[in-house]
Amino acid sequence: MMTGKRFFDLTMSLLGLVVISPFLVLLALLVRIKQGPPAFFCQQRPGLRGKPFQMLKFRTMTNERDAKGNLLPDEQRLTAFGDFLRRTSLDELPGLINVLKGDMSLVGLRPLLMEYLPLYSPEQARRHEVRPGITGWAQVNYHNALSLQTSCR
């Protein structure tokens, strides 16, 4: 049975995708041109009940490696266009597909990395009782300025 929140998420994400699809195609093309393929970045994140899902975003970094084949540090791989996408949160727009699939909600706690799961206290782990969101209170108020410690208190 579909809840009111899920119905709202489904309706708004579908409507949003239809309305902004030309813009999404343009952004995907710009990412491919400026950074090379692929245009999207997928990463496993914990979802509802901690179940892993593949979170979709626009790619903001290159895959440049050092002489030994190791990825360069993030700061060296982040492109100017990628930085723009992050600052404007445009890199998050493909997350609407995750909302359609039921992996995420429009509003909720952001899904952190899988590697953080063992670090949660029982109270902090309650975040997995709901679907993670594309945006939430912390993103609106602090936009990427929170650390794991402050976001998990």
Explain what you see:
The chain has 153 residues and is of the alpha+beta class. Helices cover 40% and strands 13% of the residues. The protein contains 6 helices and 4 strands. It has a two-stranded antiparallel ribbon with strand order 1-2. The protein has a two-stranded parallel ribbon with strand order 3-4. Strand 1 and strand 2 form a beta hairpin. Helix 1 packs antiparallel against helix 4 (95-101). The longest helix has 32 residues, at 4-35. It is globular, with a radius of gyration of 16 Å. Residues 148-153 have low confidence and may be disordered.
List keywords for this structure.
4 strands, disordered C terminus, 153 residues, alpha+beta
| Unreliable stretches | 148-153
- Rg, Cα atoms, Å: 16 Å
Mean pLDDT: 90
Strand content: 5-15%
Give the overall silhouette: globular
What percent of the residues sit in helical stretches (DSSP H or I)?
25-40%
Total number of strands: 4
- The neighbouring-strand order within the major sheet is 1-2
Alpha carbon gap, first and last residue: 33 Å
Series of H and E elements: HEEHHHEEHH
